[in-house]
Structures
1.
Amino acid sequence: MKFAVIVFPGSNCDLDMYHAIKDELGEEAEYVWHDTHDLSGYDGILLPGGFSYGDYLRAGAIARFSGVMDEVRKAAEAGKPVLGVCNGFQILTEAGLLPGMLMRNKNLKFTCGTVSLKVENAQTLFTNQYKEGEEIRIPVAHGEGNYYCDDATYQHLQDNNQIVFTYAEDFNGSRNNIAGIINERGNVLGMMPHPERAVSDLIGGTDGLPLFRSIVKQWRESHVSHA
Amino acid sequence: MKKVKVYVTLRESVLDPQGSAVMGSLHKMGYDEVQDVRIGKYLELVIGDSERDVDALVDELCNRMLANTVIEDYRYEIEEVVSQ
């Protein structure tokens, strides 16, 4: 399976993402610059963390108008897996590919550490290798991860099982501790925590690996059945 | 040519942690009469002469990029710029 790691000016988790796919997962990955206008050769799209365009105006507000974002939208419409982590999540909400918005953390601090997450939905193409309700330990590092949406949107997320990860306890003020959500179709996931930083015991844990394995498993199954 | 002053603020329904922190500090300084602080952004745009309706243009800019209407409201003022 071949992944595109989209690189914006100011991305800084692109190397971690690439490493996770290439070295830990053993799949193909390529860096793709933000002005690329063709993603048709990739099976999965990864939007890494960082501070694209310096987080000017709002986190993700400028990156969402990068040339490559039309292609990301096309990939999402084609049903390809699209994963946005941290700044990648912020870009996906700004682009309207996911609902809601990431606000400044409630305590106004940029917070780094490792948190416990609860897998709320293990039926997605990103989480089929986890167990429903499983608690996993994943690193976080952000100043603007406070997920906000209005009541109607929250209800909609709940009714459609779109809340995929929650913080085990309040971490940044996010509505109902939301850490990650998926689109209605189930192929676009945004999350603030960094699964790509939890792929080796050497760096403190492997709880992020099942997420990437889930994507690959689903992809292989759908491509075998089509063969 | 026109100068457009755009004010972007958090919607009333959205908690403003920065504003709360500033208000808390003002209270500690003894300014008890301050009842609320909301922090927003101020942008100045200079718009060249064009056939487009300026209001429609500024609304479009705000809705597409300058404000995120999920959590923010915006308002603006337009001033005629007289070249010297």
2.
Amino acid sequence: MMPMNAIFKITEVFKSFLLEIGELSFFAARFFRESFKRPVEFKEFLRQCYNMGNRSLLLVAVTGFIIGLVFTLQSRPTLQEFGAVSWMPSMVSISIIREIGPIITALICAGRIGSGIGAELGSMRVTEQIDAMEVSGTNPFKYLVVTRIMATTFMLPILVFFGDAIALFGSYLVENVKGNVSFLLYFNQVFNALEFGDLMPATIKTFFFGFAIGLVGCFKGYYCKKGTAGVGVAANSAVVFTSMLLFIIDFIAVFVTDIFYDL
Amino acid sequence: MSTTIPNNKPIIEIKDLRKSYGDNHVLNGFHMELNEGENLVIMGKSGSGKSVMIKCLIGLERPDSGTIEVMGETIAELSRTALDELRTEIGFLFQGSALYDSMTVRENLEFPLRRHTKKFGVLKDTTPLVMEALESVGLAHAVNLMPAELSGGMKRRIALARTLILQPKIILYDEPTTGLDPITAKEILILMKSIQDKYNTSAIIITHDVDCARVISNRMILLVDGINYAEGTFEELSKYADPKVQAFFK
């Protein structure tokens, strides 16, 4: 029989998880409310887009390239065994465009951008910079949170496209070296294998991924607890919570896609 | 003692202010009035509720009960927009300066300025106002520096310039001299006095620095356990026989 204090602990953890989900929902609702209010902080939005895109570009490129390369190298012997190596470009393109590209890029951005937002806003909270904005009669939520969530939502699909392209290029390099396949032939097969039903749902879900990264990062940072330890916790929990949320969104996205496109 | 003579027209009135965090009762019926042109020093030990009171006053914290009236407006009844407009009349100098560390000194000063078009109109060139505020604190040369490049005293001065740029009628100082060396602390006090003379502001100064209270105060309130324990001028309070009061002046 399970001891009572273990049951109590599990209940407490579950209760705090539900509370956090509730607070996050209120935070998201506030984001939508504030998004339509004036003034529009367009300059800050562009600055955030540039920072997020520019800072993540190299990481996304390197990861995408290695994923494409390794994925092709690992799959090749199995396909060769069945004499289906000519299916390699189709298989790689569908896997990368539908699933691997979006989720890997989103996870990298959760680590890179989500933790960065959590730490930045957390440190602003701890050093009373957010309070200073508030008392000067400006709306810190609009300036700091709305712009960042919008920027992640807008930039993640672009980063995913970029990451996908690099991953496919990595895969092509392996095929070129091992199978002497030309660039034109490889990418011809890649695009022949792709359909609207592969590209569209994958693109739509990246907007949700981006939104989740910005939302959780901002939520954790904005309500960061006092002290430098609080900043560390905010950055860390932003990554953990976002990563979990990304898989949940992905799971839902696959179900919804299945309804419309019959996977 | 400050040179500006206060009149008896209250611009801030706090009545029966109470605030608790769980079982921790921080404010237990605090009350005060700030008159126009007056420098009111509120002294108390750490954790006596000074900062909580000032945060309730500016609307950063919501009190459990009691009323706060600033320039005839009841804080609790104001809409977000009305509160933001009122906040342009109240400057707040944070203990840690709270400069925006991703912005230059100029951007720090421009930030509130560009967002209050109702008070200042749409400003195409903010340079004259920025420079005037920086000259008031003697740091015009620091306009393009980042906060990380400034010393503690310079940060405090820039924060003061950022407070002044909105041309407030009231300035709230939260521990203005804490963490500064005695010479810089004295410079900040002289600056606070000169600002009051130049802009005719009223001020609430939260401190536990007796020298600061002696130099700047017109009147003082000693805050003990969330209530007004003693009230009077620096000279009056320093002569009190009560050991709790004397503890502040030793």
